[in-house]
Write a structure and sequence with these properties.
- By secondary structure, this protein is mainly α.
- Helices cover 93% and strands 0% of the residues.
- The model has no long low-confidence stretch (mean pLDDT 91).
């Protein structure tokens, strides 16, 4: 499970990295889609890496339990060998047939060898599980850093667009104010011209008379 999740997570991190590279800051719907795709890919990679860590943690827990159980089996096998040898010694001291005791010693020794192998295998599995968990944590860190980097890029693009929009709005407001002033000046000039026209007409009439 952990190995499969590791492979899936690595694939998603690669996809998120590609999506980050494909981010387009242009003001088009297609470019905007690249921002959405990158953020989605980054978040998905983090989720997968988190699951990978959980799986690896479970693996370590199970491996630790296996080591404990293997050691318990070895302890029991050690005791069985000791008891079988004691029984053999007793039978020999009593000049009894020791066939059964010898078989018991053989069986106990075989069980002990198996237990020793189990302990070795369990410890190896635990070492591998610990390494898997370390890799999982490193992978989660990488995915988180990548996701943060994607977020920084997209936030930067949004901030730039907001700044551009604000600048455009300010420029438009300034232009409108200038247009309003010009319109007012035009109205004043027209009023002045109209007044002058009236005065001139009056003067012409008076001169005529």
């Amino acid at each position: 499970t952990a190995d499969a999740q590791e492979t899936a997570t690595d694939t998603l991190i690669t996809a998120a990295t590609d999506a980050k590279t494909a981010i387009d800051a242009a003001d088009t719907d297609t470019a905007n889609d690249t921002l959405t795709a990158a953020e989605t890919a980054g978040a998905t990679a983090v989720t997968a890496a988190t699951t990978y860590v959980a799986n690896a943690t479970t693996l370590v827990s199970e491996a630790t339990q296996a080591v404990t159980q293997a050691n318990e089996a070895k302890t029991a096998a050690d005791d069985a060998v000791e008891q079988a040898n004691d029984a053999l010694a007793t039978a020999q001291a009593a000049n009894e047939d020791t066939s059964a005791q010898e078989q018991a010693v053989s069986d106990a020794t075989t069980a002990l060898n198996t237990a020793n192998t189990s302990v070795t295998d369990a410890n190896t599995a635990l070492t591998n599980a610990d390494a898997e968990l370390t890799d999982a944590n490193d992978t989660l860190t990488a995915a988180t850093n990548l996701n943060d980097a994607i977020e920084a890029v997209t936030d930067g693009i949004v901030a730039d667009d907001n700044t551009t929009a604000l600048t455009a709005a300010t420029t438009a407001a300034t232009a409108q104010a200038q247009a309003n002033t010009a319109a007012n000046e035009t109205t004043t000039a027209q009023d002045t011209a109209d007044a002058q026209e009236t005065a001139t007409d009056t003067l012409i009439t008076a001169a005529t008379d």
